[in-house]
Amino acid sequence: MTEKIEYETSSGNVFDDIGIKKPDEYQHKAMIAARIYSIIQSRELTQAQSAKILGVSQPKVSALKNGILDGFSIERLFKFLHLLDQDINIVIQPKKGSVSSFSVVTG
Q1: What are the extents of the domains in the chain?
Q2: pLDDT averaged over the chain?
Q3: Topology of domain 14-105, CATH
Q4: What 8-state DSSP symbol labels residue 94?
């Protein structure tokens, strides 16, 4: 006999699923922070070296690494990318399923 397992389908945003306030913003911040830390790792920088480049304390770099993002705005994370010599391209387009007479692409 097979036992039925109950489950709940994800919304597609884990932060929404667990009740975080502003889940879309938090998901975007998490994606940017992951990219920042990936760059730090690829350059084999220590947290102390990273902190010096980013102009923050080593505990802030640790928080970034561990996904503790409450102290970081998206603008601040973009500044970190800039300090790590990264270009940022922002694409603006209609939401999936919506109809628009035009779209704007910057970058």
Answers
A1: 14-105
A2: 87
A3: 434 Repressor (Amino-terminal Domain) (1.10.260)
A4: P
- Residue 105 confidence (pLDDT) above 70: no
Q: Read off the tokens for 58.
A: 């080593």
What is this structure's pTM? 0.76
d(CA 84, CA 69): 18
Look at the alpha carbons of 83, 44, 57, 21 in this order and tell me if their dihedral is positive or negative: positive
Buried b (16+ CB within 10 A) or exposed e, 29-58: bbebbeebbebbeeeebebeebbeebebee
Q: Tell me, what's the pLDDT at 33?
A: 95
